[in-house]
Amino acid sequence: MLCAVAEFCALRDAIANHVRDGDLVAMEGFTHLIPFAAGHELIRQRRRNLSLARMTPDLIYDQMIGSGCAARLIFSWGGNPGVGSLHRLRDAVEREWPSPIALEEYSHGALAGAYAAGAANLPFAVLRSYAGSLADVNPRLRTVTCPFTQEELTAVPALRPDVTIIHAQRADREGNVLIEGIVGVQKEAVLAARRAIVTVEEIVDTLRGGHPNACILPHWTLSAVAVVPGGALPSYAHGYYGRDNAFYTAWDEISRDRETFSTWMDEHVMRQGPGIFADRRAALTRPS
Hints:
By secondary structure, the chain is of the alpha/beta class. The protein folds into 2 domains: 7-106 and 160-281, Glutaconate Coenzyme A-transferase (3-Layer(aba) Sandwich), CATH 3.40.1080; 124-157, no CATH class. It is built from 10 helices and 13 strands. The strands form 2 sheets. Strands 1, 2, 3, 4, 5, 9, 10, 11, 12 and 13 form a 10-stranded mixed sheet that branches. Helix 3 (59-66) packs across helix 4.
């Protein structure tokens, strides 16, 4: 995916201009830099019938699924990390509330390979795995024979999102974006996508002097950049703020009951805007 230049804009405009009903949307960020602010904007704009892709769907996809945004989930693990189940995801799968959801499950390695194949504009990734049960529940997994060794291998279809959304630490004034710390598959997910939106903590003059474990996404790979301080909360942003562990624990109780969930979403998402994340960041980093 190549763009002439990344557009700097408000988050609401980035979502309105680049995410459509029925899109395949990837929202990546492994452990930290999870794009919660962007997910909440999708919910506020009432996007529907989305196919949601994520290596490790956790609270943000639980919120989006419970809000009726999703028709399909493409994933390799799902849960509330260190706490338990995603109750809104379970309700959708087991009781079709608020609507039915289809599941497309892979291993971590297979889904990472699918992103890499999409980024390289290849039709599929090849793995030496899946002799076990996942192939029985995912009909999209196929076998191919190596033309050189005659070895039978597993083929995983390339993943090419309509739009990828990530959070990053900072962008420079040309729209180049720096991710540092745990990088995950953000680079591959962006390069595989037709459009890409990034929320960042801040705009800086230069990206020099970053962490040695870092990745720079050039501006021509991105469609829109929106400044949303605290936009990864309650996950953490390496170098900026820590993880709000208490919220992950609290979510288990909030999400168990439909009415409690709906009330919480109305108060904390539907009646708020992206600016609330800066307030949460300030509260989390304020000396006690």
